[in-house]
Amino acid sequence: MLKKVMxxxxxxxxxxxxxxxxxxxxxxxxxxxxxxWMLELAEAGNPEARxxxxxxxxxxxxxxxxxxxxxxWCLAALPELPSxxxxxxxxxxxxxxxxxxxxxxxxxxxxxxVEHGNPACCIRLAExxxxxxxxxxxxxxxxxxxxWNGLQVCCDDExxxxxxxxxxxxxxxxxxxxxxxRRWIKSCPDSSFPLLKMGECYRYGxxxxxxxxxxxxxxxxxxxxxxxxxxxxxGECYANGRGVRRNYSxxxxxxxxxxxxxxxxxxxxxxxxxxxxLGVRCNPEEAIKNYEKGVEAxxxxxxxxxxxxxxxGIGMEKDYKRCAELLDAACxxxxxxxxxxELYESIIAKCAQLGIPSSASGAIPVTHDGLIEAVRNxxxxxxxxxxxxxxxxxxxxxxxxHNALFLIKIKQMSPAVVKDxxxxxxxxxxxxxxxxxTLGDMYYxxxGVRRNYxxxxxxxxxxxxxxxxxxxxxxxxxxxxxxDKFKGGRSEVHEWIQRAIxxxxxxxxxxxxxxxxxxxxxxxxxxxxxxxxYFAEIxxxxxxxxxxxxxxxxSGGKTLRECVRLI
Length: 567
Hints:
Elements: H1 2-10, H2 14-23, H3 32-43, H4 47-58, H5 67-77, H6 82-93, H7 103-115, H8 119-130, H9 140-151, H10 158-170, H11 174-187, H12 193-204, H13 212-224, H14 228-240, H15 248-260, H16 266-276, H17 284-296, H18 300-312, H19 320-333, H20 338-354, H21 368-376, H22 380-393, H23 398-409, H24 415-428, H25 433-445, H26 453-464, H27 473-482, H28 493-502, H29 508-520, H30 528-539, H31 546-554, H32 560-564
Helix pairs in contact: 1-2, 2-3, 3-4, 4-5, 4-6, 5-6, 6-7, 7-8, 8-9, 9-10, 10-11, 11-12, 12-13, 13-14, 14-15, 15-16, 16-17, 17-18, 18-19, 18-20, 22-23, 22-24, 23-25, 24-25, 25-26, 26-27, 27-28, 29-30
């Protein structure tokens, strides 16, 4: 069949040529013959060929065409190909493509594309509505319907499936949630994330009847795909007898696999196995070693477990000072689950019995130390409301915004205040760059909102629209692309690095990152002299042990993000 199409194309059949061009549309390098046909047809005025060329130009596969020409081609193709032409025009006017940004026209053509059944327009319009600062709960059903319509065709778009799942959760539409996750699994069989979602559904009974056996089944499938969190959850199933007979040896095996694959949560579980002799001979020294690594990884459960050993003198001499430091660290890193809260309260009670001070008296100031005391004393609701009211009356209080973000990060701000705070930030993001940056951080890390990398990049870009705003956002975006979190992946890193070079002055994180990249020759040519110039600049801004970080990074002991130490 393909040979027949090729022969027809060589003979001059336009439709056959368009079929072959379409087959190579997503490839960066199109064969010279197909590219020649595409250019000839476009110059001759063929609307399909012109729209295909516009799409390749938007993907940066074709260069040398000015946006005005491409716009005129799309407008001319509208009567004959309204669906595809509307999609291309919406892309041209979308500011994320930086061609000819015009939000009003983008929305107009997105809606036209939706009217003509264009699935990509359905998804893009849903994304626009969902990320809008003026989003209301009553808008969610329309967003859900748009995503369903778009995903009937664009079924391999993982970000859109994740957004649909989030919308269904916001609507408490658990039937839709489960249906979306099932379709996501079917459409993206190599993705482990929906398998973890399905495991959660069966674990907690969201949209389905709770079933421990099916919980284990889906976690196991994720683990089989190499997902470290899937391995960790399988270990939890074996350790707790969830859907399988309790088996600590198997649990320890999966914890070790998870750790080897990158899940640092396993440090505390491995330490617990050694501390209590579960599936392995009791070994307090090995337990301490794993807990210490968990502390280095900023994990609250490891801090609490090690604090308890310090207090009891297990495997070491009693060390009350170290115990107090670990308790403070656990509060700062975030006490998320009930079992950690119970251990924390147990340690505090033991401290009280021993007469060891565990909290300060008097009013709690809204400072970092004061927030830790508020967490410890369960006074965070009062502090949260105070911060919220401060920001509402004076959006310029950047320190209060950082403090509020800290409480959200460690999940010590009540859900109602979090919801109001996010709504406030969306409103402020239009006028205050630090609000946009804070939203970017929240969506990147999942603090108080569902993790959404597309939203994170959108708000980081929004913050950069403000003139003379601090440039620590550039390294955040670079690291996001470096880690393949943002669409475009590593192909976009070079472009953002060039922007960061221009804007690096006065930004310790930006200068530090560029220095590291020049030093080791990652994305930039290796240049020790340039690297030292950047390092010299940041030493006057912040006390950073560059040499130690370089040693750790080059030996594989730290990631690039850990070296830069961004939020």
